[in-house]
């Protein structure tokens, strides 16, 4: 049996606690009385994955079984989540591969021969052929990729987009033409956290900028409370409205999967455990890893972490109608991630790890570090933020001045030009977004290379709008001072220095909560 998450109060007996710090980690002693929120242990995985997949396809929720939806002469499109999830990537075979193969086998039995597979990457970068192969597997890749039947969605290919209409709020719904004109759209999802899945899969993953700008904007983001609670997230409300329009025109068979918290294994297994339960072997692994990382050159350190593959276990797979399927998905996600926390704190502390949704096989630039800490981790709550209004957030990450010119070209200009002018999301949106979104060079790189869309750094900055509005102080421990100052934050050398810096707003004896993740957790703040 896996143990649930819990809240520890630091006392004299508490050992130094591990804090993720980019491509490395620290052991930190926290002030007495600090609350430490530990994630639940990994839930037991489904025993027979293939049987679970077949059961979901043959016994879907509020839908005919998949074989009854398939017929000869039909147009079938299978869309799937891109490499932004799960994090870190999973060991082979990817669960999406196993589901896609099962769907294709049923399609072949029904005589369906017009099939296309689309990576639903919206304005994310295109996946390389090898990255596509890693998701769908060798057999599917060789059958579809050479003939152009397996490909990345292109949100700038106007000839292959279809406008389905507007929501009651005037939001445009424009998606992949192939998906829109299919007799059946099968969406294969990985729900790593509560934010994923539901109508967000189709109405965002297969959408153009014309659609995305209605919810990926500063006003919507600042009023999303939080991204992990779709009923209190303005972004999700918009996606759900768009989903209503989309499903009026397109028959969607949604397949959603949930994974457990089995993230770190092998020599990094100690990262899964509570510090006072480390064995002698765990302690030796921790010390050896820590020393090796400290001595390793940057490129080797980066390779060590980018090579991490997680042995996730499947905790559930459901298929059928989008809304009831997603309800089942959320039950599984909450069962794995939810930790009850009583009340808010004056200070929240978070360690930002080496990976986020937008630097897979790449580097975590300063904007992405901010997005991971102040966007994803800050929003990892249900009910209320872990930190009170006008409280302080302290984050750990080196925030080096490092950008990938291949993957994040517009990020460099955003950091140097836009943030030099303003860090206010609304001001940035009004003054600069249209220019970047329509820039022909950024569009060319998005369409022909492996670059995120020109508008993407704006979306990442809007992602932290809620935290910027809610928090009185934001301080980074051990970060590049010039880099964080450009983003409007401050840097401290140590935790004690950071607490001193925020004392003017939270006092000298603040209540403190440390979110001890990853593995993933969702703080249910009462």
TrEMBL record:
InterPro entries this protein is in?
LarA-like, LarA-like_C, LarA-like_N
User: Where does the LarA-like N-terminal domain start and stop, copy by copy?
Assistant: 37-227
GO MF, one annotated term: lactate racemase activity
- Pfam short name (any one): Lar_N
> Which branch of life, at top level?
Bacteria
**This protein's name:** Uncharacterized protein DUF2088
């Amino acid at each position: 049996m896996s143990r649930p998450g819990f809240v520890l109060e630091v006392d004299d007996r508490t050992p130094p606690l591990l804090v993720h710090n980019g491509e490395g980690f620290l052991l930190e002693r926290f002030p007495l009385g600090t609350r430490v929120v530990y994630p639940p242990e990994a839930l037991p995985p489904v025993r027979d994955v293939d049987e679970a997949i077949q059961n979901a396809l043959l016994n879907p929720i509020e839908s005919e079984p998949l074989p009854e939806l398939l017929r000869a002469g039909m147009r079938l499109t299978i869309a799937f989540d891109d490499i932004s999830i799960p994090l870190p990537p999973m060991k082979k075979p990817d669960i999406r591969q196993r589901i896609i193969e099962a769907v294709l086998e049923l399609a072949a039995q029904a005589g369906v021969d017009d099939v296309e597979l689309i990576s639903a990457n919206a304005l994310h970068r295109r996946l390389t052929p090898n990255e596509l192969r890693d998701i769908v597997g060798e057999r599917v890749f060789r059958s579809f990729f050479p003939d152009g039947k397996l490909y990345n969605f292109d949100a700038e290919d106007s000839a292959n987009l279809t406008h389905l209409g507007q929501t009651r709020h005037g939001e445009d719904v424009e998606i992949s033409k192939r998906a829109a004109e299919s007799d059946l759209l099968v969406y294969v999802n990985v729900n790593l956290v509560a934010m994923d899945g539901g109508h967000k899969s189709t109405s965002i993953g297969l959408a153009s900028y014309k659609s995305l700008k209605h919810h990926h904007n500063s006003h919507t983001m600042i009023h999303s409370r939080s991204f992990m609670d779709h009923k209190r997230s303005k972004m999700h409300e918009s996606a759900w409205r768009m989903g209503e329009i989309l499903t009026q025109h397109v028959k969607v068979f949604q397949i959603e999967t949930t994974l457990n918290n089995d993230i770190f294994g092998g020599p990094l297994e100690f990262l899964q455990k509570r510090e006072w339960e480390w064995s002698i072997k765990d302690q030796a692994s921790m010390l050896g890893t820590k020393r090796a990382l400290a001595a390793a050159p940057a490129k080797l350190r980066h390779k060590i972490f980018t090579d991490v593959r997680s042995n996730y276990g499947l905790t559930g797979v459901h298929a059928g109608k989008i809304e009831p399927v997603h309800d089942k998905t959320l039950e599984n996600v909450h069962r794995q991630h939810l930790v009850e926390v009583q009340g808010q704190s004056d200070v929240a502390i978070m360690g930002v790890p080496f990976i986020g949704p937008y630097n897979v096989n790449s580097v975590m630039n300063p904007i992405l570090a901010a997005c991971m800490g102040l966007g994803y981790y800050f929003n990892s709550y249900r009910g209320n933020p872990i930190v009170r209004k006008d409280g302080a957030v302290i984050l750990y990450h080196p925030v080096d001045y490092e950008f990938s010119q291949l993957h994040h070209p517009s990020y460099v200009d955003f950091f140097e030009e836009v943030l030099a002018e303003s860090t206010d999301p609304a001001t940035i949106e009004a003054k600069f977004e249209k220019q970047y979104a329509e820039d022909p060079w950024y569009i060319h790189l998005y369409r022909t290379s492996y670059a995120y869309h020109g508008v993407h750094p704006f979306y990442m900055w809007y992602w932290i709008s809620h935290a910027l509005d809610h928090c009185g102080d934001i301080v980074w421990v051990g970060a590049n001072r010039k880099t964080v100052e450009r983003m409007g934050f401050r840097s401290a050398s140590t935790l004690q220095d950071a607490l001193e810096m925020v004392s003017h707003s939270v006092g000298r004896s603040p209540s403190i909560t440390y979110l001890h993740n990853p593995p993933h957790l969702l703080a249910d703040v009462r």
